[in-house]
Amino acid sequence: MSNGKSPRRTWFGPCIFAAAFSLVLAGRLSAAVMRIDGEFQDWKDVRVCALDPKGDAKGAFDITKVYAASQGSILYLRFDTTNVLNIQNGPEAQGTLSIIIDLPNGRQLTLDTRGRRAFLNDDSEGRIGWDRLKYIVGPTYAQDEFEMQIDLAEFNIKLGDWVNVQFDGSDQLSAPVRFLFSQPWQTPRRRSHRREPGTDVRIVSFNTYFEGLSDPDRADAMGRLLNSVDGDIYCFQEEWKTEGHSEILKRLMLPEGNGRWYIHKVHGNVIASKYHLNILPSKNDSYAAALIRLAEDSLLVINAHLKAMGYIDSIEDQLRIRQANDIVATIDEVFSGQYFEDDAGGGRPAVVIVGDFNLVGSRAPLDLILEKKIHGLKDWLIPNLIGESVVTWRGGARASFSPGKLDYVVYSAKTLVPRNGFILNSELLNQTERRQLKLDVADSRLSDHLLMTVDFQFSDSAK
What we know:
Order of helices and strands: EEEEEEEHEEEEEHEHEEEEEHEHEEEHE
Distance between the termini: 31 Å
Number of strands: 23
CATH superfamily of the largest domain: Endonuclease/exonuclease/phosphatase
Strand content: 25-35%
Radius of gyration: 23 Å
Strand order of the largest sheet: 1-11-10-5-6-7
Structural class: alpha+beta
CATH architecture of the largest domain: 4-Layer Sandwich
CATH class of the largest domain: Alpha Beta
Largest sheet: 6 strands, mixed
């Protein structure tokens, strides 16, 4: 993750006049492919298009640098906030940050980030759904730099059109950015859903949205989704009350040879495996953990659903941090040989942590897991099968929070080699792809989260 202080900050030098705080942005400053993931490597060739003095803000968001790029009718923005904040939530006293886009024909689009709404002209009580704008902002956790995309196709923006971009609320630029849409739409990349040669295990993570596995109205779509990825181990979240998951899953997807599903459930977290599970105790109800023996290798699987809501330093954020510390403690105990030492084959098992991390406060819960160097854990950023989106949560049509990445995959890099990995959204597939996967176009709508699939190969060091 970028901390906003890398050498990229020096790129603006050649394209900013000494006395100027903004400039006209044309095609040569636009990027062809962008991924809204809260990381900024894809902005390396995009120069700063506006500077604003530090310390002039009337709220918590103090903008000093702005970047802009486009593809087709999509506008991409990157900006800093000086302070580490959550862009969509926080104490009321911090104020909000609005992005105001002056469109052709005198129209004006306002994006109120803390108000979590978009509206046109002076209709501040109105709301334009995030899905209509294909609006994404990242990261979801607190940071001092953010990126976002806004699709202006609804307003008939096309190549050759100009818009002005200004900020309001906490801070305002000394002059608006004038931006020219000059980069054509690029055909999205289409990835394969198939297992790559050498894959040893496929793990699927899916927040089923309020007992989705047992909901008869969603059963057909759920069965198609789960069968389409053909996982060896499934990790479900939000299965709080339902019991009897082995029988439920046999109805939805029968294992080869009429086998059984081995189940471990803690609160709403279910681990379902084609392989026998050695169940581990959990220190809180936000995760389930199990050791799984696969041929000559052992795998520790942790399925997590951390506390939702809140913002940095809130009560909810502090609870997420405690929950993450408990996950680290469980891994420590496993690595010390406290559980099933014989099953571990005399060595440390490989580790995979998946699930809904709900990083809407600080990034600390993820960092606590990654920073324990002895565990050798790494975060794997998974893209969609179609295009560059890493969004895993979309909400409903009236959701106030915008779509973002809430689901994560963490693995032990010394013992596992990542192979194929993808987020599945049936609505993005073409007819041929849906036919191959035996999906209907609307199947992914059964949950507010998207299904995520990851394949691993055990490295030589794990054998």
